[in-house]
């Protein structure tokens, strides 16, 4: 058996693997494909932490603490916050028709 010190486990954080805009795009696009608002908010949390909450909050003009709270999973962020974060990350929202198979 291994002791806890021998294993040296670290907590997984997806933010550690978002290294550039393409990674952020892929992560957010995958979350949007889930068609679940909670998945999108969770993805924005991860991407925001990868980019840097302080840098992002300054860019969109909100308090750092407020941005943390917006994506903590305990509250639902306002649409304008989500919209501004997505824009600050270098993306835009657009509508795409849902294809219904008959």
Structure overview:
With about 100 residues, this protein is mostly helical. It has one domain. The chain has six helices and no strands. The protein has helices at about 5, 20-35, 35-50, 55-60, 65-70, 80-90. Helix 4 (about 55-60) crosses helix 6. The model has no long low-confidence stretch (mean pLDDT about 90).
Summarize the structure.
The protein has 102 residues and is an all-alpha fold. 56% of the residues lie in helices and 0% in strands.
Note the main attributes of this structure:
mainly alpha; globular
Low-confidence stretches: none
Global Rg: 16 Å
Number of domains: 1
* Shape type: globular
The SS-based structural class is mainly alpha
The helical percent reads 55-70%
Q: Per DSSP, what share of the residues sits in E-state strands of 2 or more residues?
A: under 5%
Give the ordered list of helices and strands: HHHHHH
The major beta sheet can be summarized as: none
What's the mean pLDDT score? Answer: 91
Distance between the termini: 56 Å
Topology (elements, then pairings):
Elements: H1 4-7, H2 21-33, H3 37-51, H4 53-60, H5 64-70, H6 79-88
Helix pairs in contact: 2-3, 4-5, 4-6
């Amino acid at each position: 058996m291994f002791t806890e010190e021998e294993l040296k486990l670290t907590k997984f954080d997806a933010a550690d693997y978002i290294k550039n805009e393409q990674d952020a795009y892929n992560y957010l696009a995958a979350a949007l494909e889930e068609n679940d608002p909670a998945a999108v908010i969770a993805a924005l949390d991860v991407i925001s932490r990868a980019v840097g909450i302080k840098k992002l909050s300054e860019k969109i003009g909100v308090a750092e603490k407020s941005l943390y709270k917006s994506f903590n999973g305990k509250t639902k962020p306002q649409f304008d916050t989500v919209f501004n974060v997505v824009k600050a990350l270098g993306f835009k929202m657009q509508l795409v028709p849902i294809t219904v198979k008959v």
